[in-house]
């Protein structure tokens, strides 16, 4: 088949974002009532835009107040100022209210962290994919009011002024990325406390802690006082924000002629007067409570992964069950309210990066991930009726955000797994599937208590954390195949010709595979040390200059410690390094071991020469490699043992490195879309992969390397001890035609059960066929609803760049299905 | 320890019996069905297969051939079958696996090891091993040993067969088999001979035998418009089956398609699909209805 693709015609992003009303009407959503249809339509058809309002309020505030207050109090007052002054929006027909920007899909900027240049804004406004519109007038205002003040004062500049040359060289070579240079550290998920306590209750606790401060004996007491004051102010700010909504709803109600809507508006006002100040009393209030807290944390700062409600079905179940019994709420009403919430999340695209190349990661997805099912804190099964309602909503709404995942423990009923598989079959790319039996062990290994581990789960893509009690910061991706590339070039990056690592010896002189591997491990340790050193430095920068007092209110034990979320306040403080490309590096090492050192099919000189020429004129050699080498993902001990070795050495290099909070670094095996970027900064690799092509994602096998079906992939992957990681990632693709019947669904669920019984952490499925994908490239407008899941997130096929599209197509098809 | 010629082992097989299975394909079949999707399964000898589209003209095969049986044309590599001894050296040398040998001698230890590696999937899904082919009963000595070994390991055993075999063999195999998948290709003996090369009498007799000894089976019918999908044949099939003492009462209808064509090309053999058509949806539905009228559940797919 011809794999060449035509150039995808420029798409206005919002047009490509899931407006499937005309395209596949037969699939349209029996569960959506008129209100939800309208709200959904508005959400998917509104084009993402940039709002400069937050930046203007903040710049004005900083000009006036910087230096007058302690940093935490300054940050809290800045947040208060935004809550006071920002434009608020209450849309027609809405039940759950609140937007971060002045209107749906309007994304604020965060110049205190990183300030967009005029050129950035122009690029964002005009690029083909992931476009954010902004008017020339706003760009001019930004240039005049915002940019001059922040020049030299942003967090990003502070960071880059202080990093060592070795780090810069490795970073620029693409050996790793740095998460925290663009956004605040995040990956934060809440537990159940906000459904039992209102912000007034939190304020009372803050006051108690202030009373308890011991200024005579605790040298940090004054710092703690400032932090606690800041937390208190941030509670007031959030309550104020909700009150403004209550007032707005009341005003709208006065003008409203439709009696039904008038009653709804008055109800909204009542809800917003009660939460977040007080603990929610009803299902409606519980959802609105979470949403105000969510908005507060993403307005105060722009942490990665926005914010997550965690086990939302479990948190909502008591409200749902009580009101259903009291007959104050019907199942349909509950579903409508939850659908409104779902759409609210979709109204919040990710804040765009600066210095945009659109290469590293391009998506509107801000990675809110709803955990459905799983286990409860007491160890019992967590599935309830709200879990099933959520599955229905995912299938009905079919929108980009929020992401969703089903959590399948050995106690989870088959009914729930099968209902989940039926949603997977729709090919929306979600839900992904997680294994609590394993991730609870992962959390226990990291020292969490059993209860905290059970209340934990997965946020963002696949990373685990103790919900509501942990700061688990992803610090950046590690390009493991690139480390081998640099090793094979004695410390030089062959793409740029610059030094990127250490001199580890000319591989032509290596007498054995062990010698080569030892050089690789030395290089690996050098790169990881650079990464850790700078990550720790950046951590301190955030603790000093960009604390997050409101986030600290809702994460245990920031209040009782009197410390910020970024300063060791949480009960657990973890740093992750995400390792990418296990398949590519394993297969490359396998080629060198098998062909160069053992079979002597060809020499080191020969393969290095072929790789340096991108296999030009060496197709026979390349084919020999591809077809005659043991590769990872086939249940072949030869390749799998190499993968085990690499995994062990990654653990040795990363696991246990101290962070700034007296705790430590862990690894996880996540790539999101970074394996595409990493592939672009690399030449060809010994496994026959050509220059610029993406490397393997997560713990998945290299594309096309797994030729023995999904059970062999599963066997290979579960030779790795997933409990030593903070998450692994497996992508499997299935053809839709093979999931038609109930028994097909049963077998998919049995495959999942098998993987999990063997110790797998996560699996996700792309249910698409290649012909569809090629057709989608040719006629993108006919396939607007084609949502694919890639490496931990879902995106619309048409929203993906050509590389990502090709990547989806290249994945191994499981033909037996 | 006896060896058998195996042409494929499929992991995560989900269409060859209950649950997730591992299917072992024996090479060699006494039938020669015109529509055969796996033509390499028919010959009991190792065969050479050549996929032209994979060939990059590396010519390593020509260099290693001890008989000088291969030559390069502008279009592809050509084999002189008068010279070729099917030694397999060309396949070993081929960098793209455009040339592959179909049929590999495997002993029972190797096969049991492979089967056992999937046992967790069997446990989780109520699956097991399926012996298919070709015709596994042609390899009954090995098959009986394999069935014994699997039985010792509590692995669920399925035998996928045409039942064109001596009745004593069927009986012996049935003692060690939980479920048979039995092909029923045509009720009319003349047509059966025409399309498969053999009479259906032995086959029908052996189906009755399974019924008599209470050995469970599913019937599989390759549903081919123009061959056996007509109302009369389906009715006769249903009538025949309805009279049996039969636990599952399940028929798998396998609608015909011509993906076998590509494999015929690779073998260098010809494929004549004349008069064979994919059954239309109403034919499939009619067939399901007919079986249902006779108290038998028919489903599409295995």
Structural write-up:
The complex is a heterodimer of chains A (817) and B (302). Chain A has 817 residues and is α/β, with parallel strands linked by helices. Chain A has a domain at 471-729. Helices cover 48% and strands 8% of the residues of chain A. Chain A contains 31 helices and 14 strands. In chain A, the strands form 5 sheets. Chain A has a 5-stranded mixed beta sheet with strand order 3-4-5-12-11. In chain A, strands 8-9-10 form a 3-stranded parallel beta sheet. In chain A, helix 16 packs across helix 29 (742-757). Chain A is globular, with a radius of gyration of 26 Å. The two termini of chain A are 21 Å apart. Chain B has 302 residues and is of the alpha/beta class. Chain B has 11 helices and 13 strands. Chain B has helices at 60-64, 89-93, 108-116, 119-125, 140-152, 167-174, 189-196, 201-212, 231-242, 260-267, 281-293; strands at 3-13, 21-26, 47-50, 70-72, 77-79, 99-102, 104-107, 128-132, 156-161, 179-183, 217-223, 250-255, 297-300. Chain B has a 9-stranded mixed beta sheet with strand order 7-1-2-8-9-10-11-12-13. In chain B, strands 3-6 form a two-stranded antiparallel ribbon. Chain B has a two-stranded antiparallel ribbon with strand order 4-5. The longest helix of chain B has 13 residues, at 140-152. Chain B is globular and about 60 Å long. The mean pLDDT of chain B is 93. Chains A and B meet through helix 25, helix 28 and helix 29 of A and strand 1 and helix 4 of B.
């Amino acid at each position: 088949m011809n794999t060449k693709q035509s150039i995808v015609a420029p798409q206005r992003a919002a047009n490509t974002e899931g407006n499937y009303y005309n395209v596949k009407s037969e699939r349209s959503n029996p569960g959506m009532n008129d209100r939800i249809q309208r709200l959904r339509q508005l959400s998917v058809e509104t084009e993402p835009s940039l709002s400069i309002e937050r930046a203007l309020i903040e710049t004005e505030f900083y000009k006036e107040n910087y230096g007058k207050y302690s940093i935490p109090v300054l940050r809290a007052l800045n947040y208060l100022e935004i809550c006071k002054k920002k434009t608020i929006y209450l849309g027609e027909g809405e039940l759950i209210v609140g937007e971060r920007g002045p209107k749906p899909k309007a994304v604020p900027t965060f110049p205190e962290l990183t300030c967009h240049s005029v050129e950035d804004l122009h690029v964002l406004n005009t690029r083909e994919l992931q476009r954010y519109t902004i008017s020339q007038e706003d760009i001019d205002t930004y240039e005049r009011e915002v940019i001059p003040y922040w020049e030299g004062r942003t967090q990003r500049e502070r960071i880059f002024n202080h990093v060592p040359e070795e780090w810069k060289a490795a970073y620029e070579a693409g050996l790793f990325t740095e998460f925290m240079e663009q956004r605040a550290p995040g990956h934060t998920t809440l537990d159940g406390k906000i459904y039992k306590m209102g912000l007034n209750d939190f304020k009372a606790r803050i006051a108690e802690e202030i009373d308890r401060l011991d200024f005579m004996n605790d040298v940090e007491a004054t710092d703690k006082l400032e932090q606690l004051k800041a937390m208190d102010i941030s509670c007031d700010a959030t309550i104020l924000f909700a009150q403004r909504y209550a007032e707005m709803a009341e005003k709208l109600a006065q003008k409203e002629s439709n009696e039904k809507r008038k009653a709804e508006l008055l109800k909204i006002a009542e809800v917003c007067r009660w939460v977040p100040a007080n603990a929610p009393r009803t299902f409606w209030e519980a959802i609105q409570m979470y949403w105000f807290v969510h908005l507060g944390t993403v307005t105060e700062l722009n942490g990665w992964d926005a914010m997550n409600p965690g086990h939302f079905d479990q948190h909502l179940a008591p409200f749902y069950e009580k009101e259903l019994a009291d007959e104050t709420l019907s199942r349909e009403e509950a579903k409508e309210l939850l659908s409104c919430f779902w759409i609210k999340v979709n109204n919040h695209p990710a804040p765009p990066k600066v210095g945009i190349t659109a290469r590293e990661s391009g998506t509107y997805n801000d990675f809110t991930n709803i955990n459905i099912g799983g286990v409860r804190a007491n160890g019992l099964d967590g599935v309830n009726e709200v879990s099933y309602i959520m599955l229905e909503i995912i299938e009905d709404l079919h929108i980009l955000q929020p992401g969703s995942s089903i959590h399948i423990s050995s106690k989870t009923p088959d009914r729930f797994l099968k209902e989940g598989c039926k949603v997977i079959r729709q090919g929306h790319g979600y839900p992904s599937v997680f294994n609590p039996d394993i991730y609870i062990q992962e959390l226990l290994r990291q020292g969490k208590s059993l209860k905290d581990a059970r209340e934990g789960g997965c946020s963002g893509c696949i990373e685990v954390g103790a919900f509501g009690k942990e700061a688990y910061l992803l610090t950046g991706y590690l390009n493991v195949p690139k480390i081998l590339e640099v090793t094979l070039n004695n410390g030089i990056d062959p793409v740029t010709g610059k030094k990127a690592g250490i001199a580890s010896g000319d591989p032509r002189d290596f007498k054995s595979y062990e010698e080569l591997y030892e050089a690789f491990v030395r290089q690996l340790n050098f790169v990881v040390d650079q990464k850790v050193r700078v990550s720790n430095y950046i951590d301190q920068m955030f603790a000093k200059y960009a604390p997050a007092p409101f986030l600290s209110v809702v994460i245990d034990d920031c209040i009782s410690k009197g410390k910020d979320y970024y300063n060791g306040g949480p009960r657990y403080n973890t740093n992750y390094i995400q390792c990418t490309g296990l398949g590519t590096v394993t297969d490359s090492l396998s080629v060198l071991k098998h062909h160069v050192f053992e079979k002597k099919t060809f020499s080191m000189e020969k393969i290095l020469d072929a790789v340096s020429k991108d296999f030009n004129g060496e197709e026979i050699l390349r084919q020999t490699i591809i077809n005659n080498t043991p590769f990872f993902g086939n249940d072949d001990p030869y390749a799998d043992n190499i993968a085990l070795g690499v995994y062990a050495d990654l653990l040795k290099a990363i696991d246990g490195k101290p962070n700034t909070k007296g705790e430590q670094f862990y690894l996880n095996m996540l790539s999101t879309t970074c394996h595409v970027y990493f592939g672009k900064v690399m030449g060809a690799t010994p496994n026959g992969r050509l220059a610029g092509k993406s490397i393997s994602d997560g713990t998945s096998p290299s594309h096309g390397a797994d030729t023995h079906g999904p059970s062999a992939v599963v066997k290979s992957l579960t030779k790795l001890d997933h409990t030593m990681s903070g998450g692994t990632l497996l992508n499997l693709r299935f053809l839709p035609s093979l999931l038609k019947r109930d028994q097909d669904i049963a077998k998919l669920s049995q495959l999942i059960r098998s993987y999990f019984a063997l110790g797998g952490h996560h699996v996700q499925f792309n249910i698409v066929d290649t012909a569809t994908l090629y057709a989608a490239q040719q006629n993108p407008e006919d396939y607007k609803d084609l949502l694919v899941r890639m490496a931990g997130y879902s995106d619309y096929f048409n929203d993906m760049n050509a590389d990502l599209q090709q990547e989806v197509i290249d994945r191994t098809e499981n033909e037996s299905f | 320890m006896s060896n058998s010629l195996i042409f494929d082992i499929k992991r995560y097989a989900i269409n060859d019996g209950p649950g997730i299975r591992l299917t072992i394909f024996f090479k060699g079949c006494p039938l020669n069905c015109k529509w055969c999707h796996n033509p390499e399964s028919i010959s009991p000898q190792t065969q050479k297969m050549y996929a032209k589209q994979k060939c990059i003209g590396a010519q390593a095969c020509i260099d290693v051939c001890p008989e000088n049986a291969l030559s390069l044309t502008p279009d592809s590599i050509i084999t002189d079958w008068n010279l070729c001894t099917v030694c397999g050296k060309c396949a070993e040398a081929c960098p793209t696996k455009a040339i592959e040998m179909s049929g590999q001698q495997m002993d029972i230890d190797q096969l049991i090891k492979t089967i056992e590696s999937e046992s967790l999937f069997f446990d989780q899904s109520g699956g097991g091993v399926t012996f298919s082919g070709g015709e596994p009963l042609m390899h009954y000595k090995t098959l009986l040993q394999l069935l014994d070994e699997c039985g010792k390991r509590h692995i669920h055993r399925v035998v996928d067969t045409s039942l064109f075999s001596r009745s004593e063999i069927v009986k012996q195999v049935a003692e060690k088999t939980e479920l048979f998948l039995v092909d029923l290709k045509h009720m009319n003996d003349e047509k059966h001979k025409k399309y498969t090369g053999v009479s259906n009498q032995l086959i029908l007799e052996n189906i009755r035998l399974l019924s008599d000894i209470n050995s469970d089976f599913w019937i599989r019918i390759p549903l081919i418009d123009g061959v056996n999908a007509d109302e009369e044949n389906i009715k006769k099939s249903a009538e025949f089956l309805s009279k049996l003492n039969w636990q599952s009462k399940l028929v798998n209808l396998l609608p015909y398609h011509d993906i076998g064509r590509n494999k015929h090309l690779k073998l260098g053999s010809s494929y004549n699909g004349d008069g064979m058509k994919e059954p239309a949806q109403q034919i499939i539905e009619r067939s399901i209805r007919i079986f249902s009228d006779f108290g038998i559940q028919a489903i599409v797919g295995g």
